[in-house]
Request: fold
Amino acid sequence: MPTTNEDRVSEDGHLHSATDLNDAPDELVRAVDELLDNLSTKFSQVSTEVFAKMDEMAQRLDELEASIKATADSSEDNLRGD
Reply:
């Protein structure tokens, strides 16, 4: 009979050592933490890019609005004969 310090074979035929069994939860926690950190970093990058694009679009819309207003004002002046 294996002790806790010996390797053992599970019912599905996989070899497990005592250190593997003890480290498995820690490894899972580390893997999940790393995944969450990566997702957080990617989310921050995407958020930054989206906000930058939104600022750029707002500036372009402001410029377009000013251009349309200037064109409309010019057209009104021409119609009045100024």
User: Anything to note?
Assistant: The longest strand covers residues 8-9. The CA atoms of residues 39 and 45 lie 10 Å apart. The chain is about 75% helix and 5% strand. Strands lie at 8-9, 15-16.
